[in-house]
Design brief:
single chain, mainly alpha, globular, disordered C terminus, EmrE-like, membrane, cell membrane
């Protein structure tokens, strides 16, 4: 059981380490591509890669499971990224960064409402408070002004709820015993299908000549193979092994990785507030995870006594 959980932690950590650096690739691609084009092309590439790796057709156990995959594709691929991208055009990126830290809390609420197989106590909320304070300090470190942009901020909040719903759906799907690559591939397929209306409503164009640029090609390979195909599989694995709540806590690390990557790649300076924010965020992660581990350990010890 301990090795099983350890594999889940490794999968979650690998996922977050990659997702925390995707902003650089996205920023570079925005020179030649629109947000919706980046979103569509990266998931097409991710779908093709997963199809090549595991080309076997999925056989559903029940027809009603199809609805779960449709909802997962809508939430985890289409709605989450569209809401986040639109929010970034209406509010400060720092606002979105802080609001994204609410994902674990949103996941906890939805998990308790719909799955009822994971419980919470005080340490989770203490860790959440510490992490949110840390993320706030990282985002507003003296280089950004605090502004409230109602519509953009509401869309960012909606994105956190949508991702929480995706995590809950993933946990539910994993209980049926389907292969993780097959489930991820099916989620990508529905996400791409449900994305089509947005493509027609936007200024989308194929423009395949843009892929001849080595910079564009490399960044799409990173986003499509690494951040999409690999990371969605590892995230789904982590959720199936650790649970939706425990896995979502790793989201706290995204702004930390972003700051460190900015220092290395973009040569940005680390401010004192950012350093303090990093420490608080990591402390919040440790407190939240320690709480859940301790509770599980207590149950095991109780069984041994009996």
């Amino acid at each position: 059981m301990r090795n099983f959980a350890s594999n889940g932690h490794i999968a979650a950590l690998v996922t977050i380490l990659i997702w925390g650096t995707t902003f650089i690739s996205t920023k570079l691609l925005l020179i030649d591509f629109t947000p919706i084009e980046i979103l569509f092309f990266r998931f097409v590439l991710g779908f093709v890669v997963l199809l090549i790796i595991f080309p076997y057709r999925m056989k559903l156990q029940h027809k009603k499971h199809e609805l779960l995959f449709i909802c997962a594709g809508l939430c985890g691929v289409t709605l989450y990224y569209l809401l986040e991208n639109i929010a970034l055009t209406m509010t400060l990126a720092s606002n979105v960064g802080v609001i994204s830290g609410m994902v674990p809390f949103s996941t906890a609420l939805l998990t308790m409402l719909f799955l009822k197989d994971e419980s919470l106590k005080g340490n989770f909320f203490a860790g959440f408070a510490m992490a949110m304070m840390g993320i706030f300090l990282i985002s507003y470190n003296g280089t950004a002004n605090f502004q409230i942009n109602p519509l953009g901020d509401i869309l960012a909040i909606a994105a956190t709820v949508v991702w929480a719903a995706y995590s809950v759906l993933t946990k539910k799907i994993s209980s049926y015993g389907y292969h993780t690559i097959q489930t991820t591939r099916k989620v990508f397929l529905y996400g791409l299908i449900l994305m089509l209306p947005a493509l027609f409503l936007s200024d989308f164009k194929l423009g395949l000549n843009r892929f001849t640029s080595p910079v564009n090609l490399f960044n799409f390979l990173f986003l499509g193979i690494g951040a999409s195909a690999l990371c969605f599989v590892t995230w789904n694995m982590a959720v199936s092994k650790l649970g939706a709540i425990k896995t979502s806590v790793y989201i706290y690390m995204v702004p930390v990785i972003t700051v460190v990557t900015s220092m290395i790649v973009l040569k940005e300076q680390l401010t004192k507030l950012s350093a303090l924010g990093i420490l608080l965020t990591l402390a919040g992660l440790v407190v939240s995870e320690a709480k859940l581990n301790f509770k599980k350990k207590g149950r095991l010890e109780s069984r041994m006594v009996k």
